[in-house]
Amino acid sequence: NNIAYSGVFLDLHNDLVYHESMPGIQMLMARRFDDSVKGGESFFVDAMAAAEELRETRPDAFDTLTQIPRPFCKDDPARPVPACYYYGAPHIVTCKLTGHVSKVFWAPAFEAPFPVWFDEGAQRRYYDARRAFAAVLLKWRKERAVSLRMQPGDCWIWNQVRILHGRQAFVEEEPGSRSLHGCYCNIDDFASAARYALGDDLPLVPLANRSEL
């Protein structure tokens, strides 16, 4: 039932936003991507930079999306192991000390309805702000996205809370095939391994996790 396993267009999103402990690192490897496959290119956008553009152009919308949590949900009782996940978070998370954007949550396919008791005025402000951010992301997808066609053996690794990803629609023409395998990694484990691999004398770029420092 996962739309990612189909050939349809997938717009910008990050994965597993309905988890409270959402993994921060995503990896995607191409096992097979034949030349006869039409489409299927992946594209990526720096969501933090897009959020900063929203702050500059619509500061009111930016503030709203840092204050009002959006419910996210995955409910699939038909799976061999039934899945029922629910989590609420603002689309944009900022550091309380510095104010810089530290996370972006964006997954329209998994947005759940607001609870019936949720303030109606807050919902109106939210949807106005969401439309503004969606317009910024659309512009970034068209003008600033990194778009690449994977080659067999390629493995892409990215920060899940900073980079939104998507995929162009594709058609597999026999005997051609497209087979990609993906997995996730805890961002703290990744950062720990990177620090030891790089050595204490090399600076490590901040990873945009929950840390306020």
TrEMBL record:
<keyword id="KW-0560">Oxidoreductase</keyword>
<dbReference type="GO" id="GO:0046872">
    <property type="term" value="F:metal ion binding"/>
</dbReference>
<dbReference type="GO" id="GO:0051213">
    <property type="term" value="F:dioxygenase activity"/>
</dbReference>
<keyword id="KW-0223">Dioxygenase</keyword>
<dbReference type="InterPro" id="IPR042098">
    <property type="entry name" value="TauD-like_sf"/>
</dbReference>
<dbReference type="GO" id="GO:0045329">
    <property type="term" value="P:carnitine biosynthetic process"/>
</dbReference>
<keyword id="KW-0479">Metal-binding</keyword>
<dbReference type="Pfam" id="PF02668">
    <property type="entry name" value="TauD"/>
</dbReference>
<feature type="domain" description="TauD/TfdA-like">
    <location>
        <begin position="3"/>
        <end position="184"/>
    </location>
</feature>
<dbReference type="GO" id="GO:0005739">
    <property type="term" value="C:mitochondrion"/>
</dbReference>
<dbReference type="InterPro" id="IPR003819">
    <property type="entry name" value="TauD/TfdA-like"/>
</dbReference>
<protein>
    <recommendedName>
        <fullName>TauD/TfdA-like domain-containing protein</fullName>
    </recommendedName>
</protein>
<dbReference type="InterPro" id="IPR050411">
    <property type="entry name" value="AlphaKG_dependent_hydroxylases"/>
</dbReference>
<keyword id="KW-0408">Iron</keyword>
<comment type="similarity">
    <text>Belongs to the gamma-BBH/TMLD family.</text>
</comment>
